[in-house]
């Protein structure tokens, strides 16, 4: 298997199994590769050891769980990721420079600074306003050509244009453009956020960078506006609507499905989609 594809698939697997055994031995066995070879390739491709990557992602995901499950105790969240109460607090503070208790108390419910433009404040709607526009839909699997970017989500607009120009030969009237994101930029360091830019292609596409995006049940919120306002909408759904909705987010990626991209006006029409259980 191509080394980049191997690392990408291992990241996907790790992100979906953060509450399970993710030892180097277990991961190497999952991908039928020597653990020493696997460890070396992962570090060379990502700049992080497998252990450091898993530890970071577990703590970041636990912070997301705190955000989405305000009634769940910090002790229970720590236990979900294999930490004792005291150990969890220590590791969390080391990662985020704040205790889990203080973090939980600071979770915004009405507004927050935009990390990409700190002088700007994002203001949230009410849960009822979000609910009025949200639908629950079932999606089929999508076979896509993709490129993975690890870095600041503020660069996604530029990255999309480069991606579309690079693969314009594969684009046609039936192409679906999909963005697959793994991180919350208010929690994960901006330099470490993961996003896949994707376009649907035929199953016989012979490029190496293809994959299947799994379908299932999703909440869908339509967005039509300037790219700079996407953050405010997504954070409002996550911080205000989802914790009160009665739905649980499935432990995998969210996706954005694009219907229109207007380069000149820096605006898009898209569906913001969150997987639910």
UniProtKB/TrEMBL annotation:
It comes from Anaerovorax odorimutans. This is AraC family transcriptional regulator. SMART domains: AraC_E_bind, HTH_ARAC. Signal peptide: none annotated. It comes from the Bacteria. The keyword Transcription applies. Keywords: DNA-binding, Transcription, Transcription regulation. The keyword Transcription applies. Residues 8-106 form the HTH araC/xylS-type domain. PROSITE patterns: HTH_ARAC_FAMILY_1, HTH_ARAC_FAMILY_2.
């Amino acid at each position: 298997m191509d080394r980049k594809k191997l690392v990408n698939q291992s990241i996907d697997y790790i992100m979906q199994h953060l509450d399970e055994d993710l030892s180097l031995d277990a991961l190497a066995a999952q991908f039928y590769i020597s653990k020493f070879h696997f460890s070396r390739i992962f570090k060379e491709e990502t700049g992080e050891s497998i252990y450091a990557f898993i530890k970071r992602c577990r703590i970041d995901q636990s912070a997301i769980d705190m955000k989405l499950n305000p009634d769940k105790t910090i002790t229970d969240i720590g236990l979900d990721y294999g930490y004792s109460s005291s150990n969890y607090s220590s590791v969390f503070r080391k990662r985020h420079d704040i205790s889990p208790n203080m973090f939980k108390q600071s979770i915004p419910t009405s507004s927050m600074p935009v990390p990409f433009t700190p002088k700007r404040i994002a203001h949230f709607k009410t849960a009822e306003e979000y609910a009025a526009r949200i639908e629950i839909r079932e999606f089929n699997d999508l076979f896509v050509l993709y490129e993975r970017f690890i870095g600041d989500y503020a660069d996604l607009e530029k990255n999309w244009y480069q991606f579309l120009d690079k693969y314009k030969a594969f684009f046609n009237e039936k192409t679906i453009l999909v963005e697959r994101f793994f991180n919350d930029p208010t929690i994960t360091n901006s330099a470490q956020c993961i996003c896949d830019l994707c376009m649907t292609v035929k199953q016989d596409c012979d490029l190496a960078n293809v994959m299947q995006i799994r379908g299932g049940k999703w909440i869908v919120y339509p967005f039509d506006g300037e790219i700079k306002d996407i953050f405010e909408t997504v954070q409002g759904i996550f911080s205000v609507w989802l914790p009160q909705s009665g739905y649980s987010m499935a432990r995998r990626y969210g996706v954005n499905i694009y219907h229109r991209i207007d380069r000149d006006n820096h605006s898009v029409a898209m569906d913001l989609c969150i997987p639910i259980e």
